[in-house]
Write a structure and sequence with these properties.
heterodimer, A: 2 domains, 11 helices, B: alpha/beta, 4-stranded antiparallel β-sheet, 8 helices
Chain lengths: 279, 284
């Protein structure tokens, strides 16, 4: 009897229901590490600002600290001054990426499909890829009538390589059986592309676009240091010339935030285009 | 209506091989007939099947289906492979519909696919992604996909060898039943003597170096076949005799293997050669 009682007591302990995670709990768990990272970055920034302000040589740059920067950030956002440069910059990046995709994806499909083409293009493409896009600047300025077109060209030439090679990689990973079965079911080249190749490589293409967005966003700012009178790069240069370091830092913040958002969009696209089963 | 096949004196050389893989193969298959090709690795049975599908062209001779020479694949003669090779980004329905979509036969496609999925027992799974299915279910989707285009000829390249024993037997019976109902001709390659006896009207035994047909055995047992009947056991024993198998049939528990199914070299060779020959056809 006694033994039975002990047993049932044990069972009761074991079967006590697990505490159910409420939504707020889950959200807290999901956010606590990112929050820690952000806090760390702010701490580092604050410490940097403090160090600059307390050094006689660098005191003039004290407005790089979080306080003045966030005030300036609020100013440019609330006055609307931030939107125009963002619009110009996104316009250039958008077109640059558009051209890079339009050229890079077909080129990647060809390179992935024809081994000969891969071998032929290897040396010239790796050679071109390793040239900083900014090195093309003088040529771009000569070749294009407008500054906008020159910048779009620079972005495109920087962004085309990751897209090309990610696409080629995706094509090479296509299971030959998929093509064989498609062939057997009477697929014409359009069908093969639309129903087999494109869904099969979508994830790799978006992964390439994600890399390209990163490169494009990096190339954009120095490209906008030259010539143009709009865009985020120009805004930074302008703030430097007028010694508004708080505004300069605020635009750096804007560049970071938008870059992060573009990347987050790409990550979502990669996830959505993946055909791999969840889990 | 099933296709009439005639294989006219096919000889095939793979580059870099001294002996021809196939030599003077001459076979005819009557409409609605089911023929098994059985033999050891390297005897060219998979190569022969690829030629029937139009995925590979023979060095000499030709394959005719209903009198027309086979030079390229067609949805009228569908091939099923050892792997289901479904498209993992599609649902069961979409995978099964693909042949019809490619042929532009979208009218009453939904009803046709519904009917087919019911036939293969996957009605419940129609809108599910194929990655969540078991191996047997995936092979059923592949079967539905092959049948959707109303083929006259079904070519099976060891399609059940990767499945567990229960699923394998169920699918063997199902394919046999469907092929007979629809009067589809079937040619299949197998390592499995029981599979050959269970499904085929006629078994062709192939030998290697060079690949030739060394024996022919008619299986005149009525369908559905009882695998424990004396006639079935006798046929199995007879067929095993061609491989010099000394084991008593009784001691053999299902799935007598004429060889270990590990070696896929010939099948792979046929597949890569198929890709090349397709390129050649396109270039020509």
């Amino acid at each position: 009897m006694n033994r039975e009682a002990t047993l049932s007591a044990d069972t009761a302990t074991v079967e006590r229901p697990m505490p159910v995670l409420r939504f707020a709990d889950q959200a807290r768990r999901a956010l606590q590490y990112p929050a820690l990272g952000i806090a760390g970055l702010f701490a580092l920034w604050w410490w940097g600002g403090w160090a600059i302000a307390n050094n006689e040589d660098t005191m003039a740059f004290a407005s790089f600290a979080p306080g003045p920067t966030l005030t300036a950030f609020w100013d440019i956002v609330s006055s609307g001054a931030v939107w125009k440069p963002i619009e110009s910059s996104l316009y250039r990046v958008g077109w640059g990426l558009g051209y890079a995709i339009a050229i890079g994806v077909p080129m990647g499909v060809m390179i992935g499909y024809f081994l000969t083409l891969k071998q032929v293009t290897h040396v010239p493409f790796q050679f071109l890829r390793m040239i900083s896009p900014l090195a093309w600047m003088p040529i771009a300025v000569l070749a294009f009538a407008t500054w906008d077109a020159a910048i779009i060209f620079l972005i495109a030439i920087a962004a085309v390589w990751p897209i090309t090679y990610a696409t080629a990689h995706g094509v090479q990973r296509i299971d030959p059986m998929w093509l064989k079965v498609g062939n057997n079911l009477g697929a014409n080249p359009y069908h093969t592309l639309r129903y087999i190749v494109m869904p099969a490589i979508a994830q790799d293409v978006f992964a390439g676009i994600r890399l390209a967005v990163g490169v494009a966003w990096i190339v954009l700012v120095p490209a906008e240091y030259l010539g143009v009178t709009s865009g985020l790069g120009y805004a930074i240069n302008d703030a430097r010339d007028t010694l508004e370091y708080d505004k300069l830092a605020a635009f750096v913040l804007v560049i970071g935030i938008i870059g992060y958002m573009l990347d987050a969009i790409c990550v979502r696209l990669i996830k959505r285009s993946s055909y791999h089963a969840e889990g | 209506m099933g296709a009439a096949i005639s294989i006219d004196y096919i000889t095939h050389h793979y580059p870099k091989q001294e002996e021809p893989t196939l030599k003077d193969i001459q076979v005819t298959v009557a409409p609605g007939e089911t023929v098994a090709l059985i033999g050891q690795s390297g005897c060219g049975k998979s190569t022969l099947l690829h030629m029937l599908a139009g995925l590979l062209l023979p060095s000499e001779g030709c394959v005719r289906i209903n009198g027309h020479q086979v030079i390229k694949p067609s949805p009228r003669w569908n091939m099923m492979f050892q792997k289901p090779s479904l498209y993992p980004w599609m649902t069961v329905r979409k995978n099964a519909s693909l042949g019809l979509i490619f042929q532009g036969r979208k009218r009453d496609m939904r009803d046709r696919i519904d009917e087919l999925l019911e036939t293969v027992g996957l009605t419940e799974k129609a809108e599910v992604n194929v990655q969540s299915l078991s191996g047997g279910q995936q092979q059923r989707v592949a079967l539905a996909r092959s049948l959707a285009t109303d083929p006259e000829l079904l070519l099976l390249d060891e399609p059940f060898s990767a499945l567990d024993a229960f699923t394998r037997v169920a699918l063997q019976d199902e394919v046999t039943r469907l092929a007979r109902e629809r009067r589809i001709s079937v040619v299949f390659v197998t390592h499995d003597i029981e599979e050959a006896v269970a499904m085929a009207d006629r078994v062709l035994v192939m030998g290697s170096n060079p690949g030739t047909i060394t024996a022919e055995l008619h299986i005149d047992i009525a369908h559905p076949r009882d695998r424990n009947s004396q006639a079935f056991v006798d046929r199995k024993a007879e067929l095993m005799g061609y491989f010099g198998a000394t084991r008593a049939p009784a001691a053999d528990k299902g799935g007598a293997e004429a060889e270990a199914p590990t070696s896929e070299t010939e099948s792979e060779q046929a597949e890569s050669a198929a890709t090349e020959s397709r390129a050649r056809v396109r270039a020509a």
